[in-house]
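URGENT: need a sanity check before tomorrow's submission.

F., can you look over the Nicotinamide-nucleotide adenylyltransferase record below? I want to be sure the sequence and structure line up before it goes out.
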Amino acid sequence: MYGDFSDVMEKSDERMEVVLLATGSFNPITVMHLRLFELARDYLHGTGKYKVVKGIISPVSDGYKKRGLVEGSHRLAMAQLATENCDWIEVDPWECLKKEWTETALALRHYQRLQTCTGHTGAMEKKPGHRKGQKRKRNNVREDVPDYHCPEGRAPPRVKLLCGADMLESLGVPNLWKPEHVVEIVSSFGLVCITRMGSDASKFIYESDVLWKHRDNIHLVQEWITNDISSTKVRRALRRGMSVRYLVPDAVLDYIKEHDLYSEESEGKNSDLILEPFLRNSTTPQQ
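Structure tokens as predicted:
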């Protein structure tokens, strides 16, 4: 359908390099979370236009205040265990270790800025005269960034947000996302969305003027081997003493048992709090 795959690989230097970023609770991480990366990479490579060079899992911070959200240190450790044998997906603690919740658009800016500085080689070059302790510049996204000089050469990898159909459809929930952030995500970065049974992502895009306008930057990937595993269902099974083996990586299951995670008590955590996006977007002026 897309031509000879070997020819595509030989011309890999002509393809756009892509970093796939998945944000979310990962409470706990499941095999389906990892599957999303594989499906997205296969799809993007199959177009002959893209080369996926890295996947990043960025667990949300405790400041998200979602019901049943266990401590970030546990979610981070489980994600690291799940990817310890993967040679292209890594877990980044930048977002998870923050006290406050980081909006997805800001996370995308952060990781894109890192790619801009490191390029595809992974090496950053400091400007001459940059010394330890030297004051760092501030940019227009209100975050401190090192004063790095980015090596010249080919364009840096582009960061795209990897998500499931549920996240895509959440873009239409009032006060969950800032409208300007939705525009930025689909226009400046792009989405790779893995569809699943029971969702109609194409219809959702059609019914949204913003998503329809930027539909060429939204990649819908059909999962033909249907899998309805979710963190919510895994937690429910654990609370009821049911087996979740083969739904989460073995190392993750061992960690859950060792630390006695996911009980009736843990599921009630944050039950008296408002989800941070709703609280922030409904009480402060949008910027």
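My own read: The beta strands are 16-24, 50-59, 89-91, 125-126, 137-138, 144-145, 148-149, 158-164, 191-194, 218-221. Confidence is low (pLDDT under 50) at residues 120-151. If you see anything odd, call me.
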